[in-house]
Amino acid sequence: MAAAERERxxxxxxxxxxxxxxxxxxxDQPRAPRRKLLPDYDPEAFGRLSERIARFLGTGRFxxxxxxxxxxxxxxNVSAPAGLRFDQYPFIFLTLMLSLQASYAAPLILLAQxxxxxxxxxxxxxxxxxxxxxxxxxxxxxxxxxxxxLGLGEVATRDWIRSELQDLVKELEEQRGVFPxxxxxxxxxxxx
Length: 192
Known about the structure:
mainly alpha; 6 helices; 77% helix
């Protein structure tokens, strides 16, 4: 049985090689990855790196270091011996370096801002949904409290029962004065 299975596998592999040679591909198997001209990169890692660079470019430390480098550059190229100067007075190379730095800094800062905008958009959407839920909950609780107040208007409270009992006692006392009780009538008859 195992030999028959091996034979079938060999035939299948042979057919696969033949179909590949003719430019036909099997649809039940994934294609081999193609070679790409550009290297693969992780956009999230690149975005995190750009945010770190943009954060650094926005610090006082960067400005101080950039100022120190430019001052040293100018002082060296003005006061050093002529053979050691690498950028003469109009400082064309310094201008090129600063332009290059600016040309890379601007897109990195924009990329970092776009990523921050995306995060802010998600946060605002979550806050909006949370606020909507809070408003709905508040409205529900307000309706429940209103219905409880209406229901309490029909419920007998302790103070209301007490006042009703006091009113009944007063009525009974008044009726005793108008209609003497049987016991008091019997005493009155016995006294005669």
